[in-house]
Amino acid sequence: MRALLHAEFVTFARDKTALAFTFLFPVLFILVFGFLMGGEDQSRLGLVLNGVPGTKLVSVLEKTDGITVTSFPDRESLKEGIEKRRVDFGLVYDGKALVFVYDPTRVQDNYAFEQIARGISTRFNLARQGARPAVSVHAVAVRETSGNWFVRVVPGVIAFSILSAGLFAISGHLAMMKERRQLDRFLVTPMRPVSLLAAIAGVRLVVAYVSAFLTLLVAITALHLEFSVDWGRYALFVPAATIGAMGMGALIALVVRRPESAGNVSNIFAMLMMFL
Fold it and tell me: First and final CA of the chain: distance in angstroms?
């Protein structure tokens, strides 16, 4: 059994592609997209008052969650700030009406900015009328700090790395051994087939644990993300998910004849599992 474990470990260590996709790809994905898109979930609002008193408006903006306000002297400088992405959208108040200014090129983001603008308009109209909302909403924090959207992306990356360690590696590895007729040679040896599968599973389990922990460690240390990890369930989930993916990979290897076909079929199953 030790010889099988050593042989499987050496085989995996020599496969540069498997090493890159198992360890390097998840870490690079976390670092690249984390630094590019993992910023604060605060929308930047540019404000122009046009020389009119805006005490009530400023008070409303201060009580609005999820925005940071930057003042501009006039509308032209506000438009320039929006074009150069110093602010996300703008608000011009002339004492009579609220005029919101958006960047037409940010089609997807403008929907969220419009939702914020509607909330500001509603609260400002109520403040001018001296009225109060019919329903009061109080935010209750269950933790001291809140996470941004990228906190939800990291578990998905970890799950995909576990899937890769089981599904892609096993299907391709067994299909390659099948193509080289190595499995036929094992039939004339006293080695039990279960021993080979156990050696493959043991190495892949260690790889899945290390890859998942390394990805989580990079997300915490480099991007300063905070996670509440239930290590007991984590220790059970990783082997369960890896072994389940290995079983599917073994079934794929039984059906296909070439490693390339195994990779293509594994990709199809992976896409179905992610999007269905």
Answer: 39
Amino acid at 33: F
Give the pLDDT mean for 68-75: 91
For the chain, the residue count is 276
Q: Are 171 and 250 in contact (CB under 8 A)?
A: yes
The two tokens of residue 143 are 């933790």
Six-digit token string for 121 = 């308009």
Q: What's the pLDDT tens digit per position in 145-159?
A: 555 667 778 888 888
- Could you tell me the residue ranges of all domains in the chain? 2-36+148-275, 43-129
Distances (CA, A) of 178 to 93, 182, 233: 73, 6, 36
| Domain at 43-129: CATH architecture | 3-Layer(aba) Sandwich (3.40)
Q: What is the pLDDT of residues 113-157, one digit of tens each?
A: 999 999 999 989 888 887 776 666 666 665 555 556 677 788 888
Using CA of residue 231, residue 236, residue 237, residue 238, what is the dihedral sign? positive
pLDDT of 32 > 60? The answer is yes
User: Could you tell me which residues come within 8 angstroms of residue 117 by beta carbon, excluding any fewer than 6 positions away?
Assistant: 89, 91, 98, 100
